[in-house]
Specification:
The chain has one domain. The protein has three helices and no strands. The mean pLDDT is 83. With 125 residues, it is mainly α.
Length: 125
């Protein structure tokens, strides 16, 4: 298709199925990556985390296929790359944030169990 005065090119009819299927795979692989990563970390199962990385590889393939089918070029390519890097790093950051948040709660519970004053009123437990 011709470039419409610098605007994005619409998806061609023969690329519609590829666009639809790759967009569905982005959702599926993205959810699978997040779920396997979290489940593997939560239950201390490194093999699940590695399966999560395999799902991330599927996410990368689906995103690149989607970007190609929808003619995302130029500045859009950098946006796609930034999204992929962000989605790789985000579960790690969220895991560390949750771990730090809950570590403080465990310290408070341990202190309450040893007879020290608890910041939570007994009726709220």
């Amino acid at each position: 298709m011709e470039d419409c005065d610098g605007m994005l090119q619409p998806v061609e009819l023969q690329d519609f199925f590829i666009t639809f299927f790759s967009a569905a795979m982005v959702i599926l692989f993205g959810a699978l990556y997040a779920m396997l990563f979290a489940w593997g970390r939560l239950h201390n199962r490194p093999r699940l985390v590695w399966w999560g990385y395999a799902a991330y590889a599927g996410l990368v393939a689906a995103v690149l296929t989607l970007a190609d089918a929808t003619h995302l070029t130029g500045l859009w390519t950098w946006l796609v790359v930034a999204m992929l890097v962000g989605y790789l790093v985000a579960p790690h950051a969220i895991w560390h944030l949750c771990q730090g948040t809950h570590a403080g709660m465990e310290d408070e519970e341990a202190a309450a169990g040893q007879g020290r004053a608890s910041p939570v009123h007994p009726a709220q437990r």
